[in-house]
Design goal:
Elements: E1 6-11, H1 17-29, E2 34-39, H2 41-50, E3 55-58, H3 72-101, E4 105-109, E5 120-124, H4 136-147, E6 152-155, E7 179-181, E8 198-203, H5 210-223, E9 230-234, E10 244-248, H6 252-260, E11 262-267, H7 271-279, E12 285-287, H8 294-307, E13 310-311
Parallel strand pairs: 1-2, 1-4, 2-3, 4-5, 5-6, 6-7, 8-9, 8-11, 9-10, 11-12, 12-13
């Protein structure tokens, strides 16, 4: 892939998915290169666990928060001035980092500002082609212009569209001359010898407040099924539920174990989560797209058609029937 270089890699911090999918990439690259990781308060936790020996550099945080009321696409529209400011800030920070640490290659996972005209710049994304409810041409134009600042685009998906996990998000008539499909990525470990302990796993992810909103809805749902055994992975929970075993931010080994011991997975249709489940060969899943997040809504529909996943809108959880 790359050898003999000093590589700076910086993932987006909208949730942990971008950071976790960079873990296998870093594991491969660090064998023949020096790696420096760009972190924020959120992503630092992942890299402290996975690579305590690798140098870290603080980079600007996006601190994106979802809304309980507005759909995500509209919230991001209103937040765009602040987001574009962060993009400019991270680009300026990168120029300082490249000089101080003598960086040869920068790899950005969905950080538009993490490129340099002076060194080889690589962009990791599964969203080459956006799904938006309106102004698709404008949104895609902005996306395209940012991506074209990079020398290469690495797509964490299968090259065959028929086998793709992200479908139209990453397959189509490419506008970038250097596209490389690097395959689905996960830091989790497949464990096939463990017995099933849980009927359903609530695998919660994503920014607040929607993380907590979904958690509360699923807790109420679990109470309707006292005969079933649930596990829940979340970032915090002060409540005790008789038939729900709660795991607060488990490490990678424990998380792999919990998923392997669960018959069915109930989760957001975020792409990093879907890659994890695909590579762990988990076929029974109920996907709950984040309201108004058009990418997750599209992936939910696609995974229902392509992989047989069940899909439930968040507002319909109370009427959804668990098996």
């Amino acid at each position: 892939m790359i050898s003999g270089k000093t590589i700076f890699i910086a993932p987006l911090d909208w949730g942990l998915g971008h950071a976790t999918r960079c873990v296998p990439v870093i594991k491969q690259l660090k064998q023949e290169n020096k790696i420096i990781i760009g972190v924020t308060a959120l992503t630092k936790k992942v890299f402290d666990e996975e690579f305590p020996e690798i140098e870290q550099v603080k980079i600007p945080a996006y601190n994106v928060k979802y809304s309980k009321i507005l759909p995500l696409w509209l919230k991001l529209f209103f937040d765009w001035p602040g987001i574009s400011t962060i993009i400019k800030q991270e680009n300026a920070v990168l120029q300082e980092i490249t000089l101080k640490h003598k960086i040869n290659v920068v790899i950005s996972d969905n950080r538009f500002g993490m490129y340099s005209k002076n060194i080889h710049s690589i962009f990791i994304t599964h969203q080459v082609f956006l799904k938006t409810p309106f102004a698709k041409g404008i949104a895609q134009g902005i996306n395209k212009n940012y991506i074209l600042n990079f020398d290469e685009v690495w797509i964490p998906d299968l090259e065959s569209e028929k086998e793709s996990l992200s479908a139209e998000l990453s397959h189509g008539k490419h506008f970038h001359p250097q596209i490389k499909y690097i395959g689905p990525q996960t830091r989790l470990k497949k464990i096939i010898s463990l017995q099933i302990r849980y009927d359903h796993l609530f695998l919660l992810s994503g920014p607040e407040p929607q993380h907590s909103v979904l958690r509360e809805k699923l807790i109420l749902k679990a109470k309707e099924y006292p005969q079933l055994k649930f596990a829940m992975v979340t970032n915090k929970c002060d409540r005790q539920i008789k038939n729900v075993e709660v795991f607060i931010s488990p490490d990678v080994g424990k998380l792999s174990e919990i998923i392997s011991q669960s018959k069915s997975i109930i989760c957001r249709s975020g792409y990093s989560t879907l890659m994890d489940l695909y590579l762990l060969d988990k076929k029974e899943m109920i996907l709950i797209p984040t309201p108004g997040q058009t990418e997750q809504e599209y992936l939910g529909c696609y995974w229902k058609e392509r992989f047989g996943a069940k899909v439930c809108k968040q507002k319909n959880i109370s009427s959804f029937k668990f098996d």
